[in-house]
Design goal:
The protein is α/β, with parallel strands linked by helices. The protein contains nine helices and 27 strands. The strands form five sheets. It has a 19-stranded mixed beta sheet, with helices on one face. A two-stranded parallel sheet has the order 5-7. A two-stranded parallel sheet has the order 11-13.
């Protein structure tokens, strides 16, 4: 438990420091192990347990170390008001067995030489957030038992030469100088620290780094600086590595755009170059020749848009972890299908928050084919809106698949049945309205341990009833990582678990129901037409008869007119006393205006 308290305390302090501006690190009380029973001690200004004493954050009212129980080996005295430590007697009230001491944010300006001499087992010292200069820090660097020294957020400038010449810190020492103002560093300055294990220089506006031989250095943190070039790692005259035992290198949030040969990092296992300005990754950029045992590579959130990833860019059989997320990278246009050739041992691949909109199943198969041992694949928020039963059919060893936030509207039957080792599947925040029984076979359902389909716009109908039952029967399987729930979009304020529909109403399938409804509507339409026709049948027959008779009469008349030539069109039968009217009225009207030839007895 004591070791756990130590780790929690140290981690909490560093995280709080990183989140604060310069000279304002850690303004809140440190949170130690929440399971440790702590009781008020020393006039309620501290909280003590068997091994720990938390005397932090007393609003400047505590300017000396109080008398503490002899069993205390972890002391948090941050956020008080010490101003200076004037000698070894300053810590007379603390056990000589103290291992962990936190003096963050105390306004310290001076530490007398030998002030920590009485502590024979002190291994961790947090003294950042104060106003100490390098001269005053000599008392810190002379403690022979220290394994971790945190001087972050102290307003320190460039490290002067000779500051470490008289100090030989113990084996595997970790020196934290982050959030200062160092700007440029000649590594020859820290060369006297032959046992230096870790050097963290995060956020120092560091634009220039002169290399030096540091055989013990295993962790170099250069996060969030102003480095333009990848650090020199080879001695030009001897071709020997400057950092032969370096295993972890943080270069994220700089302005580096390429890696030039030679690279001499024979033991590097972790490399983070995310949030830089890389645009091109040519063949063998991360090859085993450059990085023989590199296992973890981080390339997330580049500041500039990527333009090309060539075949074999990740040609390194040592790689087991690769993160390329948050780059808005169009894999259909900018990534060669053979980019991962030679990286056959990658087990975790982060490709989320890129673009796979126009990547076909075949393209995806070719892209991932060089990684047969892939176990975790992240494709979240990647515009992968359409999947087929073949999309993931080649991923036979994948155990975890992340597809959330992709706009997937339809899950085909057997979409994941070709993945015999799949245990975790996350499909939340898509556009899935229903899940048919055939999507997950019985074997697939039995091997899944975690399934998240929350945040989808489910349509609660007969088609969803089986899925609702599965959801109710397997509460441990279905997760809701973002707290969005499983809700019916067509039923207001109704969750999928609460949705109820009589099963008798669902005895017929939707296709059958639609077919029956269509047939009934068609029959009703024809019956309506038949009723109208039957009611007006005699009228209709008469109309039809008249139409047919008129057409027949016209056809007969026309036929006779074409076959017989008549001299007269009209024969006029009249009485003799009507002759005058016929000549005066009838003839002009019919012959002159209408063009008919009349037969008049007296004339013709």
């Amino acid at each position: 438990m004591s070791m756990f308290v130590l780790l929690v305390a140290l981690t909490s302090s560093i995280q709080l420091c990183w989140s604060q501006p310069l000279r304002t690190c850690w303004p809140y009380p440190m949170q130690l192990d929440p399971y440790t029973v702590r009781l008020p001690c020393f006039e309620n200004k501290c909280y003590c347990s068997k091994l720990t004493a938390d005397c932090s954050s007393n609003a400047g009212n505590l300017s000396f170390i109080p008398k503490l129980p002899g069993s205390i080996i972890f002391l948090n005295f941050s956020n008080n008001s010490l101003a200076k430590i004037d000698g070894v007697d300053f810590f007379a009230n603390v056990s000589t067995r103290l291992r962990f001491l936190d003096l963050y944010n105390n306004g310290l300006t001076y530490i007398a030489p030998g002030s920590f001499r009485r502590f024979t087992k002190l291994t961790k010292l947090l003294i950042g957030g104060n106003k100490l200069n390098y001269s005053a820090l000599g008392a810190v660097f002379s403690v022979p038992t220290l394994e971790a020294v945190d001087i972050a957020c102290g307003g320190l400038g460039p490290i002067p030469s000779g500051v470490f010449d008289q100090h030989a810190l113990p084996l595997r020492t970790r020196l934290e100088l982050s959030y200062n103002d160092i700007r440029h560093l000649d590594m020859n300055v820290v060369q006297p620290l032959q046992s230096l294990h870790g050097l963290l220089l995060w956020n120092n506006k560091l634009g220039e780094l002169t290399p030096s031989y540091l055989p013990s250095l295993s962790h170099l943190g250069l996060h969030e600086n102003a480095l333009v070039d990848f650090p020199d790692t080879c001695n030009e005259s001897t071709c020997e590595p400057f950092y032969p035992n370096l295993t972890m290198l943080h270069l994220d949030y700089n302005i580096i755009d390429s890696i030039h040969d030679p690279v001499c990092l024979p033991k590097l296992q972790f490399l983070d170059i995310g949030s830089n300005r890389f645009q091109y990754f040519p063949t063998d950029t991360f090859s085993g020749v450059r990085f023989p045992i590199l296992s973890q590579l981080w390339l997330f959130t580049m500041e500039t848009k990527w333009k090309q990833i060539s075949a074999g860019a990740f040609n390194n059989s040592a790689l087991t972890f690769l993160s390329m997320g948050f780059n808005n990278l169009d894999f259909a246009k900018l990534v060669d299908e053979r980019a991962f050739e030679g990286s056959q041992n990658i087990q975790q691949l982060f490709l989320g928050n890129n673009t796979f909109e126009f990547v076909s199943d075949e393209n995806l198969h070719h892209l991932l084919a060089p990684m047969p041992g892939l176990k975790r694949l992240y494709l979240e928020n990647s515009k992968l809106s359409i999947i087929t039963p073949r999309t993931f059919s080649t991923l036979i060893n994948v155990e975890q698949l992340y597809l959330y936030g992709n706009g997937i509207a339809y899950l085909p039957d057997g979409a994941f049945d070709e993945m015999p080792k799949l245990q975790m599947l996350r499909l939340e925040d898509n556009l899935i309205t229903t899940v048919s029984r055939g999507v997950f076979s019985l074997q697939t359902r039995s091997r899944l341990h975690v399934l998240d389909l929350s945040g989808n716009p489910f349509v609660c109908s007969c088609d969803i009833l089986w899925f609702r039952q599965w959801l109710q029967d397997s509460p441990g399987l279905f997760q809701d990582f973002y707290g969005e729930g499983y809700c019916c979009t067509d039923e207001q304020n109704t969750t999928l678990r609460e949705f109820y529909l009589n099963e008798q109403a669902c005895m017929l399938s939707r296709t059958t129901s639609n077919l029956i409804t269509s047939v009934i509507c068609l029959l009703l339409f024809f019956f309506f037409i038949f009723t109208i026709v039957f009611g007006y049948r005699w009228h209709i027959r008469l109309v039809i008869y008249e139409i047919c008779r008129a057409r027949s009469t016209r056809r007969d008349r026309e036929r006779r007119r074409r076959q017989i030539h008549y001299e007269f069109d009209v024969f006029v039968s009249y009485a003799e006393e009507d002759l005058a009217w016929i000549q005066r009225e009838l003839l002009p009207a019919l012959e002159e205006r209408w063009g008919l030839r009349l037969c008049i007895h007296q004339r013709d």
